[in-house]
Amino acid sequence: MKPAVLALPLLAILSMTSVSAQEWRLDDPRDMVLVTPDGELLDYIPDAADVTIKVNRRGDRVLIDHYGNVVATEMTARRYARGLRRGDTFAASPRYEPRQNEDFASSGGNTDYFPEAPAEGDNSGEITGTVPGIEDRSTFEDQPLPGDGIQNDNLDGDTAALENPAETPDTPALPNDPVIKLDGKKSRYEITALQTFLDREGASPGVIDGKMGSNVTKAIIAYEKITGETLDPNNTEDIMTRLGFNGGLPITEYTITSADAAGPYIASVPEDYSHKAALPAMSFTSVTEALAERFHMDETYLKELNPGADFTMPGTVIKVVNPGATRKGTVARIIADKARKQVFAYDEAGALIAAYPASIGSADTPSPSGIVSVERIAFDPNYTYNPKINFQQGNNTKVLTIPPGPNGPVGTIWIALSKPTYGIHGTPEPSRIGKTQSHGCIRLTNWDATELAKMVKPGVTVEFID
């Protein structure tokens, strides 16, 4: 069966933000696809405002986020399929190589450098590191963002629901993994119910957006490992019954308060680190961003559920996801599965407590292998940029302290590991968790990272497996 993904050139892909996946045909050499650095088809459509387009030495257009991460490389479907037939991990795109300098080489080439934990008694929660900007990457030339308004007649209907997501390249089956299939076209409400149920049961689907994708598939498999039960994602009646026993309906009403409307909020998240450091906090940029994170939602989905709502007006009643209570327990062991892009938390008896989708390293900046341990946990950490340790970001040549906040480079949590420079942390971009690469650390949504942080303590082992 041909994967149910969308056949558009990059110009159209970035202008049609409502599209949920890509479709390609081998018999049409014009069909283009977006391929992640580990060789999978990208399972979401980036917003043009969220990426910069560069051209690599091979002439391919490459999508790069504002933190310097490669999101995807554009190539023909025929070329991508040829690589699949050869069994290549990533046969079609040259690596995104940083310009190395003496300081970078002395740090071991690690783009997530974090020094030793502060001395005991230092409660500042400060961490040090840099996320390299795209200015530091020398193998690409700038290309203007597209936006010619190309239309596509195949965008009608509910593009969020996939008939058979298990057969699309965005959810590659791993050995011994069961195949998860959807019978027919599920509504966004039905998929929201499934995501909400999984979230309440400790099998996080990442952001709840009413869309079936790889993170949901992984969460279903994790739920079965947590409970020992089989979950049929096609049995909506059963899922609704189960929701009745663990928190109620997936969508509930919420009244916006004066505190919600007041913030404080920042106008935007600047790219330049000196501008970040000048802010009082790396706060949310809007009421919708803050509420989306509180209710584990995709911000766009929150707005779609409430058309015409004035989120800045106290007293406004809106519809939100009801994610339920925070997971409780004591975690004794963590496994970071690089292949599945998932983190598993186990108790002392070896029972799985929770599972989270994650971005774990990349081919260029891989995560470590083997066993390390948790050294300390920092909530709402500062972030110190030091150009002598890693890359120089923009024209910044001095050490800068970026204040805490959910839009900081590591989100709201930093769980330091015993291997210097590595940790488990949050993110300012939850919708990309499990779908893009990190710079070697383990990146979770802020709410999943917070939940995990409250269940761990120093000494807990973290095992990276390939």
Summarize the structure.
Residues 332-465 form the L,D-TPase catalytic domain. The chain is α+β, with helices and mostly antiparallel strands and 466 residues long.
The general outline is globular
CATH topology of the largest domain: L,D-transpeptidase catalytic domain-like
Counted up, domains total 4
Radius of gyration: 21 Å
Provide the residue-averaged pLDDT: 74
Q: Which range does the strand content fall in? A: 15-25%
* CATH class descriptor name of the largest domain: Mainly Beta
By secondary-structure content and strand pairing, the structural class works out as alpha+beta
The strands making up the biggest β-sheet line up spatially as 11-10-9-19-13-16-17-18-12
The CATH level-2 architecture of the largest domain is identified as: Beta Barrel
- The number of distinct β-strands equals 19
Total number of helical segments?
11
How many strands, which pairing sense, and closed or not: the largest β-sheet? 9 strands, mixed
Signal peptide: 1-21
Domain L,D-TPase catalytic: 332-465
Enzyme class: transferase
Family: Belongs to the YkuD family.
Write the layout of secondary structure elements.
Layout: H1 10-15, E1 32-35, E2 51-55, E3 61-65, E4 70-76, H2 77-86, H3 102-106, E5 127-128, E6 141-143, H4 188-200, H5 214-227, H6 236-245, E7 251-255, H7 258-262, H8 273-278, H9 287-294, H10 299-305, E8 317-321, E9 333-337, E10 342-346, E11 352-357, E12 359-360, E13 370-379, E14 383-385, E15 400-402, E16 413-417, E17 423-425, E18 442-443, H11 446-453, E19 461-465
Parallel strand pairs: 5-14, 9-19, 17-18
Antiparallel strand pairs: 1-4, 2-3, 2-6, 3-4, 7-8, 9-10, 10-11, 12-18, 13-16, 13-19, 14-15, 16-17
